[in-house]
Design a protein that fits this description.
By secondary structure, the protein is an all-alpha fold. It has helices spanning 3-27, 33-58, 65-89, 94-101, 104-115, 124-138, 148-174, 177-199, 204-209, 211-232, 238-245, 248-260, 266-293. The longest helix has 28 residues, at 266-293. It is globular, with a radius of gyration of 19 Å. Residues 6-138, 148-281 form the EamA domain. Its main location: membrane.
């Protein structure tokens, strides 16, 4: 797949996740956060199961044990990150949650460079800085005093960064993006329902009331968007993927304003433009440098 198409998938994933913030927030009016997590990932796992099975039957070799262990680690990381974000949304706003979750765009390149020792393309650093400033502007240039929900969401951002890096590490060598997605969804569903049934009320009427949010989050914000992420990351680096995925903050603010009536400050529109410019830099910067480095044909 060409890199620009992979980045388009990552951008679409960010847009769907941004819409998903609204569903995650309104679902809490009816059910607890862990039951919601378990059900959304259950829907996603059921939908993806036949595609993962088809991928497995077409594969030349079964998934190796180290790769299966890696897929399970990704699922565990996904569950804990989602749990922190979901519980945080019961306390903080959709806009604040989108901003703080977007901090992983800064965390990913630092982990990649200083922990994994991988050199990054030079354009990544200014693109990351532009994205972070843009996300900060979306929040109005400041945050109110951080509450517990905000702190939980910061913890979520750290784990999202780890999840993005782990996906980048395992999806390419394994060559099984759909299997990876199915395993992480199934594990997150089991963990979410297990914790939810043990700690939260569970009634059919509550599930029915939250069913639209569960189906949207399960089919689109989970099944479709996370699969876009896994497929897209086969053809790009984790830091660049984080830039495109972080547009969820932009879309979270947009849909929070349209659906929930949350206000986007004037500075937020400038932030949105800055994020867009950062995406262009991350997408076109490497191409410009490659073109300059290419040897010029000799004159006849």
């Amino acid at each position: 797949m060409p890199r620009h198409l992979a980045n388009l998938l990552l951008l679409l994933a960010g847009a769907i996740w941004g819409m998903g913030f609204v569903a995650q927030s309104t679902a809490m009016d009816s059910i607890g956060p862990f039951v919601f997590i378990g059900l959304r990932f259950l829907v996603a796992a059921i939908v993806l199961a036949p595609f993962a099975l088809r991928e497995s039957r077409r594969a030349a070799h079964p998934v190796s044990s180290p790769h299966l262990a890696g897929f399970a680690l990704i699922g565990l990381t996904l569950f804990v990150a989602m749990a922190l974000q979901q519980v945080g949304l019961t306390i903080t706003t959709v806009t604040n949650s989108g901003f703080l979750t977007g901090l992983y765009v800064v965390i990913v390149p630092f982990i990649t460079l200083f922990v994994l020792g991988q050199r990054l393309h030079p354009v990544i650093w200014p693109a990351v800085l532009m994205t972070f400033i843009g996300i900060w502007m979306l929040a109005g240039g400041s945050l109110t005093a951080l509450n517990v929900g905000d702190l939980l969401t910061i913890g979520c951002a750290v784990l999202w960064a780890v999840q993005v890096i782990l996906v980048g590490r395992y999806v390419g060598p394994s060559g099984r993006p759909l299997t990876l997605s199915f395993i992480q969804f199934a594990l997150a569903s089991v963990l979410g329902l297990g914790v939810g049934f043990a700690t939260e009320p569970f009634e059919l009427a509550q599930i029915t009331a939250a069913l639209p949010e569960i189906l949207f989050a399960g089919l689109f914000a989970t099944g479709l968007a996370f699969t876009f992420q896994v497929i897209g990351q086969r053809y790009t680096t984790a830091p660049q993927a984080a830039i495109f995925l972080s547009t969820e903050s932009l879309f979270a603010a947009l849909f929070g304003a349209v659906v929930l009536g949350e206000r986007i400050p004037a500075l937020g529109y400038v932030g949105g433009l800055l994020i867009f410019l950062a995406i262009l830099l991350a997408e076109l910067g490497p191409l410009v440098r490659t073109a300059r480095a290419a040897p010029k044909p000799e004159a006849p």
